[in-house]
Each structure stands twice: as structure tokens, then as C-alpha cells.
Amino acid sequence: MHLIEVLDLKKYYSTGFINRQYTKAIDGASFCIERGETLGLLGESGCGKTTLGRLLLRLIEPTSGKISFDGTDITRLSRKGMRSLRPRMQMIFQDPESSLDPRMRIRESIAEPFKLGLRGKMSRSEMDENIMGLIETVGLNPEHLNRYPYQLSGGQNQRVALARILAINPEFIVADEPTASLDVSVQAQILHLMMDLKREFGLTMLFISHDMEVVRHMSDRIAFMEKGRVVLEG
Amino acid sequence: MALLDIINLKTYFPSADGLVKAVDAVDLRIENGERLGLIGETGCGKTVLGMSIIRLLSSSTRIQGQIIYKGRDLLGLTEDEMRLLRGGEIAMILQNPTTSLNPVLKVGDQIAEVIRLHGGLDKKAAKAKAVEMLAATMIPNPLMRADQYPHELSGGMKERVMIAMGLAGQPSFVIADEPTRGLDARTKAEIVKLIRDMTAGRSMLMITHDLKAAGEACDRIAVMYAGELLEIASAELILSDPCHPYTQGFVHSLPSRGLQPIPGSSPSLIDPPSGCRFHPRCPRSMDICQREHPPMIRLHKGDFVRCFLCT
Hints:
The complex is a heterodimer. Chain A is of the alpha/beta class.
């Protein structure tokens, strides 16, 4: 069963008023991702892979084309319809320092999805129990909970980002170069953690990277992107 | 005679939590014409070691030991004497070109500045030489690029500008700090090749956590961990058959070598672990490793290693 199905997706950016010029960031991409599968998206910088990832979550609006998530065409959904679907799809960003709120303690960052009621009504003690469980799952210590992102290393912050995503319990994750700003040894730790989490929670993933070796380790199938087109799949 | 001989260098920073021992008793020698890679995880002190050589550290830094460059101790020079060496005799290619380049000056003018200061050329000749330097870095259309500002260039092009600027003063010794950071695979390979070609005949210290890049650009590799050097050997040996368990772990964490992580994380530089600094993370740790600090042992052909297992 396809969880994600993309059909002839396009995203053009225009500049200029009189001499209008178009940049074809995504120029007709079609592919699908099976439930429980990791699709690796490989390409050089500037080829449009981040744009594609953002389009899949509808963080930006496509120019044309269709994106269906679990049978629903999300390009036609209203804001409200989209909002109820969002918890099922999440993104992990390249730079954890800028994706976490610098003024929130780690505990608050991870607790936010619970407080928003994304996992149903929850008592204070249930919430604490859940947070402790998540912290352990991603390999952090309870002492980290009272710290701020600037007090943690890049690898630790990326673990926090993962814990926060797991708190939402999504089905689909777009991972946009999640280890690009990390050292090789820490990269290996985070990638292993992601593979474990994927198995444990049965996640479906789009894994974006420019590193062929990393993509090969992480993915069930690999798609190659060039100049806004998905040119190779297999 | 060695070009650079670092003897018992200690670079400490006072901080609110205590003294940060970023470089702790490092001995390192770079021969004439040798290119040495300095490898280590973020925060191990490798950039501070580079900055200590060229003396670009804040005045509160406590620095001890000797840095003998062509027979002179750099730590004994006055600031004026040091300024004459910087950019001319010893140059640095700084990390992160986006923040290291001046955003309001054209890149050609920034390179020309180095040439005027250290080559004694007039403005026009310096500009022409700057374009020549850019052309040497294989930047397409160097004449046009020289007239552009940093924000108009891609990451790879900015790195080329940094390299052109670093080499513009015809230095005998270049310190390159993370020259491949943030570049995609193809650009990285091009930049590594460029650095190798353009530093031929010069000496270089290349600071990086990219073991593959160091292996391609350097003759020898020194491995740094928690302020200390743990292993120094030829690039081939470090990549194929390293002796130190940390170096082995580092090599195996490469995606092309199995993506096996080293458990745990880097220790504090304020209060490093007793004995061998790597022992809490070491898969082959023994009793002695917790008690005694292993000395740097000289192996055959000038290779060094700091591990009880390798004796």
C-alpha cells in the first residue's frame, strides 16, 4: 500500500515583474513511498531535494500536481483539514539548534505535543512518564531535561528533535540531511538511532541527503534528483 | 630540519566553570613540504591548536610551550613581528567562508588586499594577480567573479575564494581549517583536489573531521582527542590499519566503513577522565587505562601512538 503518492508535482518560483522569470525548483516529480519504507532522496545542493521534502508536508504550496497521503490528496485540503493531518507527518531538520526553540527547556520542547493534546488527554504524571520513556528511547539522560538547547551538543539536540517527533507519534517523517552538521562519529550514532526507531515505530521515511553512502545505509529504495526532476528510482 | 616543531604546547582558556584545557601538552612536528591532517571530533581542540600556531587567540588565553617555526619560537615574537608572518609566511584558510569573508567587499578586492600587503604590488597589479589566483582555483569566469560580493557566490565558490586568499601571499606554511565543511560530495572532492594541487611544494596543516578528505590531501595524519594527540602516522596507515582504538572507532564510523558509532560522547576539557582520556568509551579498556596516563610511544618510521595496547 502506498502511503505517499506524488504525481507530476511542480513548484516554480518567479522573479521580476515586467521581465518575469521562472525558476523551476521542482519540475514534474512523480514517485511513491510504501508504508514502512524508507525512500532515500539523493542529489547535489540546489537540485530541489529540500523543496520536495517541504512540499510533501505542504509546508510550501505546489504550483501544480498531486500529493496523496494515505489516499487523501493533501494539495486540495483546507487549512483545517491539513491541520488535523499534520500530526501524522513530521520533519526532522538539518540544523537542530535552529529547529528547537532556544528559550524552551528540553522538557518543555518534548512536552509540547502532549500539552497540545495531540496524544489525547493526559495527566501530569502520565506526561512525565511518557517524557522519561522518550528520553530513554533516544539515548538522553534525565539531567538533560532541564537544560536549554545551547547547553547541549549538536548530536544531543538532534536526539531531542527525534524525541519531540516521537512524542507526536507520526506515521511519516521527512528527514532533511539530519546529520549534515554533525561529526562522523556522532552521525553514525544518530543514523543508528533513526534506523532503530524506524523499526520500532514502523515509520515511513523520506531520507534526504547528498551523501551516497549514508543514503545507501538508510534506505530501502533510492531516488536520484537532478535539476528539479526525479531522474532515477530503484 | 623540521619546518615547524611544536613542543609541549598547552593552550588553556579560563572560564566560569574552570580552566578549559583545549590543547594539553601537544608535541607535533611538520617537515618541510609535508602536509599533515589533524583529525578529531568537534570540541577536541584541533582548531585551537591551529589558532595557537598563528596566534589568533584572545588575550585571556594562557599559552605555554614552544612553537619553533624555521628556528624561531613564534610564542616569543612581538605582535608586530607576528603580523609580518601572518598571511605572508604562514597563512590560514579559515573555516566557514560565509562568515569569514567580508560581506561588503568584492571578493577580488579582499584577495588583492593580501597581495598588496605581502607582495608589495600596486592596486592595479594586485587586482590582476587576484584574478589570476581565482583562475588558479578553477572558478569559472574569474574576471566576473572577482567583481562580485560573497553573497553572490555558492558555498563551493566561496571556499575557492578562501583558498585563493590564503595562498595569495605565497606562504610556505598553510593552515586550512575545515575546508570541506558544508559542501556536497562532488564539490568536496573538487576542493580536496584543488587543495592538494595548490599546496604542492608547501607545508600544510589541514584541520578537519573529514577523514576521507584528510586521507586524500595529506601525507600524514595526527589524531586529536580531548586536547591530546593519540596517534600520528602516514595517511594510508591511519585509514587502513590504525593502532589506537579511538582511531579505529573513528574509521569505522565512516559510512563507507560500516557506520559503526563510537559509544558515548567526547569528555569535558575542564576535567578530563583519569588515566587514558579515551578509556570510558574504549571497547578494549583495561585496568591500567583508568589509573595511568599512557605516554606517546614512538613506533617504527616516526609513527606515534598513545595506547598501552600498542606497545
